[in-house]
Amino acid sequence: MKIFLTYLNNYKVPVALWILFGLINIFIGYLYQVPFERSLLWLAVCGFIGIAAAGFHFYNYYSRHKSLTFHQKQTHMEVQQLPLPGNLIESDYQDLLEKLSAAHSQLENTKAENEQEILDYFTMWVHQIKIPISALHLILQDEDSEVTEEMKEQLFKIDQYVELILQYVRLGSTSTDYHFQKVDLDTMIRESLKKYASVFIRKKLPVRYDKIDKRIVTDSKWLSFVLEQILSNALKYTNEGSISIYLDENAVVIEDTGIGIRPEDIPRVAESNFTGFTGREHKSASGIGLHLSKQILAKLGHQIKIESEPKKGTKVFIVFDDKQMTTE
């Protein structure tokens, strides 16, 4: 009914003219004393023909509307797939759409090329910068002074920031692919802990971890990056107490006894560039780590949940779907 009323509204001028001409015919017949029955017969014949023509026209109108509505729901569509234009104006609109579609395709291609160029540049830059970083690690390897240990820690942070920018660029690239397979959670967690072992030792923080006998369907490279980012945050904001890693139902929990997060900041901690009160107190905080982690987990089909109390610590949950997790 709504489509029919819309149709009448679109063609109200022809309908009004048809009624007007009928009234004019009756008026002229009255002036020339034409029998009223003849005028009514003329109106009846014209009305029948007009209604039949309008019905056929409405059927075409309705069919084209349904066809266009169907195409609107398609994720990808070419202009050539649209219904054939019914008049010159519709033909002009389709020509305009073709030009706009061609311009949009050109912009998409240019964007993809620019993204690939940026990714290639940062990938090359990261690999080049890692050479002097590795060389510095080797130079400092045999040194034992306190200053050298501090230099090693700062060098480790530089290495992490370099890796962070590379993952940031890769995540935003349209060419990024994901390789899903069954991954051993215990192996992945132990590798992350091993990577941060020197930081645990330097800060004299114990880690409490019991083996997790679970396998998860995921991309190991990206999930490892998320684990390392959450572990890095826990180490950054914890100066005493301990860090615990354990399984809670279908979630891996990384719990620390650090400074915690204010309740009003928790809903926004994974937003881009949001640092909250903690970030304002610690000027080195950028907020990008958790933001990237949330985006990556969403692409992997996982979730992140945070519970925290100021001055008591933080729990970060990496939540997996039941179908993704299996027992060894």
Major sheet details: 5 strands, mixed
The CATH topology of the largest domain: Heat Shock Protein 90
What is the overall number of helices?
10
Residue share in β-strands:
5-15%
Q: Give the termini distance in whole angstroms.
A: 60 Å
In CATH, what is the class of the largest domain?
Answer: Alpha Beta
Cα-based radius of gyration, to the nearest Å: 35 Å
- Based on secondary structure, the structural category is alpha+beta
Would you identify the CATH H-level superfamily of the largest domain? Histidine kinase-like ATPase, C-terminal domain
**Overall geometric form:** elongated
Level-2 CATH architecture of the largest domain: 2-Layer Sandwich
- Which blocks of ≥5 consecutive residues have pLDDT under 50? none
Secondary-structure element series:
HHHHHEHHEEHEEHHEEE
Strand segment tally = 8
Describe this protein's structure.
Helix 2 (12-31) packs antiparallel against helix 3 (36-72). 61% of the residues lie in helices and 12% in strands. The protein starts with a helix and ends with a strand. The chain folds into three domains: 2-77; 98-176; 178-327, Histidine kinase-like ATPase, C-terminal domain (Heat Shock Protein 90, 2-Layer Sandwich), CATH 3.30.565. The chain has ten helices and eight strands. The mean pLDDT is 78. Strand 4 (243-248) and strand 5 form a beta hairpin. Strands 2-4-5-7-6 form a five-stranded mixed β-sheet, with helices on one face. It has 328 residues and is α+β, with helices and mostly antiparallel strands. The radius of gyration is 35 Å and the shape is elongated. It is a multi-pass membrane protein. One of its GO terms (molecular function) is kinase activity. It comes from Oceanobacillus jeddahense.
